[in-house]
From TrEMBL:
InterPro entries: Aldolase_TIM, His_biosynth, HisA/PriA, HisA_bact_arch, Isoase_HisA-like, RibuloseP-bd_barrel. Belongs to the HisA/HisF family. Keywords: Amino-acid biosynthesis, Cytoplasm, Histidine biosynthesis, Isomerase. This is 1-(5-phosphoribosyl)-5-[(5-phosphoribosylamino)methylideneamino] imidazole-4-carboxamide isomerase. One of its GO terms (cellular component) is cytoplasm. It is an enzyme of class 5 (isomerase). GO terms for biological process: L-histidine biosynthetic process; L-tryptophan biosynthetic process. Pathway: Amino-acid biosynthesis; L-histidine biosynthesis; L-histidine from 5-phospho-alpha-D-ribose 1-diphosphate: step 4/9. One of its GO terms (molecular function) is 1-(5-phosphoribosyl)-5-[(5-phosphoribosylamino)methylideneamino]imidazole-4-carboxamide isomerase activity. It catalyses: 1-(5-phospho-beta-D-ribosyl)-5-[(5-phospho-beta-D-ribosylamino)methylideneamino]imidazole-4-carboxamide = 5-[(5-phospho-1-deoxy-D-ribulos-1-ylimino)methylamino]-1-(5-phospho-beta-D-ribosyl)imidazole-4-carboxamide. CDD domains: HisA.
Length: 239
């Protein structure tokens, strides 16, 4: 199974930021989205992972200009999440050049719509499952549901989702190491590819995830921005 790295560009008020455990009050600003996208492109990453943080909380797109700037700055495919709650928004982003949209809160609160979107746009809709202690969180992680990550993922097995993006909220932005065991266990129980997210701190995390043989890739954020992991090191470890 090929193992793909997804460098993260999180957007807040038009700027690139990194959060700790999804807390908007703990945002570190890193600058211009287009500049960052171009840097990741030139470094050799095959995909970019973009999140409209304001959109995730508002329930509708909130950083359209920044996303447009990213698309103009890179030749790489971009997957985008945050505030995508209806078919019109899915269609709008795909028509603007987004390669894959990510449905998070909508997958929990309106699974019929999410499954319909997966079927309508095969290979272009991923399901983001953000979990705290195994339970799915929604609304930019502000609310924890009564749905387990596994149950939600299983509900999309026959829908044609491009991937499941599994985030361990407690580890996100904390550089404490990725939850390899939980992510690999989820991946082994699904036919849909699973992408790990949250906590990647260095080369060892990438090596451990790839070694599972079941996880399809990982999203990398703070470790790249803080210089704990260089693009060359990350890409070499993924091969």
């Amino acid at each position: 199974m090929p193992f793909t790295l997804y460098p993260a560009i999180d957007l807040k008020a038009g700027q690139v930021v990194r959060l700790k455990r999804g807390d908007m009050a703990q945002a570190t600003v890193y600058g211009d989205p287009a500049t960052q996208a171009r840097a990741f492109d030139e470094a050799g990453f095959e995909w970019l992972h973009v999140v409209d943080l304001d959109g995730a909380f508002a329930g509708r797109p909130a950083n359209a200009e920044a996303v447009a700037a990213i698309l103009a700055a890179t030749t790489r495919p971009v997957q985008l999440g945050g505030g995508i709650r209806d078919m019109a928004t899915v269609e709008a982003w795909l028509s603007r050049g987004i390669a894959r949209v990510i449905l998070g809160s909508a997958a929990v609160k309106d699974p019929d719509f999410a499954r319909a979107a997966c079927r309508a746009f095969p290979g272009k809709v991923a399901v983001g499952i953000d979990a705290r202690d195994g339970m799915v969180a929604t609304e930019g992680w502000a609310e924890v549901s009564s749905v387990s990550a596994l149950d939600l993922a299983l509900g999309f097995e026959d829908a044609g989702a491009a991937a499941i993006i599994h985030t361990d909220i407690e580890r996100d932005g904390m550089l404490g190491g990725v939850n390899v065991e939980a992510t690999a266990d989820l991946a082994r129980r699904l036919s849909t590819p699973v992408i790990a997210s949250g906590g990647v701190a260095g080369v060892a995390d990438i090596v451990a995830l790839k070694a599972t043989g079941s996880v399809a890739g990982t999203i990398i954020g703070r470790a790249l921005y803080d210089g704990r992991l260089t693009p060359d090191e990350a890409l070499a470890a993924s091969r």
